[in-house]
Target: Amino acid permease
Amino acid sequence: MSENTTLSGAYTARERVTVPAKSLSFLEGVAMIVGTNIGAGVLSIAYASSKAGFFPLLFWLALVGGLTTITMLYVAEATLRTRKHLQLSGLSERYVGKPGAWLMFLSVCVNSVGALTAYMTGSGKLLQSLLGISPALGSLLFFIPAAGVLWLGLKAIGRGEKFISVGMVVMISVLVVATLLKETTQMRYLLDGDWRYMVPVFNVVAFCFAAQYIVPEMARGFADKPEQLPRAIMTGMGITFTLLALVPLSVIVLNGLDEITDVATISWGRALGEWAFFSANIFALCAMLTSYWGLGGSFLTNIFDKFRLGEDTQMGRRFLVLLIVAIPPFILAYSGMVSFVNALYFAGAFSGVILSIMPILILKGARQNGDITPTWQCRSPITHPAIQALIVLLYLASAVYAVASALGYLPAGW
Model:
């Protein structure tokens, strides 16, 4: 490595320390990845695979998780090559142009609104099952801490993600062990299903790995130690894959494919007993809360970035943008227009296409016109044209299938 490159990387670290109060620790960065990914998706993928079965789901988890990590690393390198802190829409405008910026911003909007709508719906169902209250009141009770931490900003999100993500890992571990030890558990259920229904599962799995959107936000938190950004991404995605595989595995071996509810922890907890019912659904609420913070925070800062509203610490503007982020999903959740799983399915289909193409173009533009040569860069195997072609073709084919199945030309997956 040349001396100039090394000096440039050191300069990058000094140059970027502009908001030390928002600095993230490595654990907080990993927790942001895990917390954002482990949201509504982990609750829905068991149900989404109820026709295909576990092994087609596992195949997609491995493939999509690997390809998503690659595109996240593309975005990470682009942020490290850019002196100014920009969100995905800002990076797209800088390195791809205004049409690309609008496409990326639209992708952020669709994915975020779809996700936050699913969280409103899912939280209402969970609190209804736990407390016996109406779903609308349950969603309102969930909304208060969800929007409250978004109001407080990046550091509060990082700390909240860290503590709750650790708690989620503990709860999942206990529930998985209890599942494997229960006498009615049947490992043979993992062999059930039909591979012909595997394609629709892809879009819900794609949604589960939704943390691409928060990479630029994480870059702000790692401004004083940029070399930790790619390590946090890879560590967080590895933990995500493990949890995303364990939850549906446990639900399926305990209940079989025919007894899975759309919010999987409801049927999972009931099968294990009262203590597990409460534990599983508290986990589910935590999962939706942490994912709400990650995607909602990214949506909020993308709005500031796209419309050049200045620093997102301006209280008046932050409050107005927070209303734009938080209120429409609550209304959509009780409009009757969209179901829990379908909200994730179509959000994953549309945003997946944009997120398969734009990081490739952003990285190419950043390598040609970036401000800085960082000490860390994506290695050549993951930037090979064959890998990039696979990413684009896979997501395009999935989007075509989603439209065709919605129009009734191809079978849905559940």
Remarks:
- The mean pLDDT is 84.
- Residues 241 and 337 are 31 Å apart (CA to CA).
